[in-house]
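Subject: for your reference before the review

Hello V.,

The reviewers asked for a structural picture of the protein, and I figured it would be easier to keep everything in one thread rather than splitting it across files. Below is the amino acid sequence we used in the manuscript, unchanged from the supplementary table.
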Amino acid sequence: MHLRVEPFRLRNETPMVSFTFDDVPKSAATVGAAILDAHGVHGTFYVIGSQVGTSSPLWDMVDGEDVVALHRGGHEIACHTFSHKRACDLDAGALSAEVARNQQYLRSLDASIRIENFAYPFGYGSFVRKRQLKTVFKSCRSIVPGVNSGDVDLQFLRAMPLIDRRIDRDGIERAFDQAETANGWLIFYTHDVADEPSPYGCSPSLLNEALEAASRRKIPVLNMAEALRCAGA
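And here is what came back from the structure prediction:
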């Protein structure tokens, strides 16, 4: 999982930060996106096609209209497989089918949706699956904490949890400190955005704190596709 398929040197001129949302509960597409919009920035939303329009004990999921609204609002729609199966548990054919089915579904909502980036369900990858995904996506994001800088593995980018139970204001500031020191790419990930978030989500106040920290430090907020272009990928 940690063995690089091919090192890539980030060529960003300044530190940068991305805000990403996994699974995409409805609150991420409404409350979360509205907060990003208020700051004039875009996020990346990793959608599971089979779960669109469904509910779970944790949250209600986005529906198709939410996905289209995110896309038309300038946010990036990205892939989280169709069935939320761990990539490391799938053979080449099964993973290809998962990815193709998710892409087909998302494009059926709006043919202009371009799927360039991927996040591993549950954060698990493997060397052979990373090599396979490299032929389909510009990047694959993990949930291994850290800031990306210098030579990185684009098929296993590190990310920090923007989750109330796992990070606070001081933790956010430390992550930005590290990004500034290393001229790095800080990626936050979360799930729902609610006043009483799930164990995997964040409150609106925590999301606002991270966005305000980026603004105060004059660090550009870019979705994954934008950041990759700035990094020369």
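For the response letter, the relevant points are probably these. The helical segments are 26-38, 64-72, 92-109, 127-134, 169-182, 204-216, 224-230. The mean pLDDT is 97.

Happy to draft the paragraph if you're swamped.

O.
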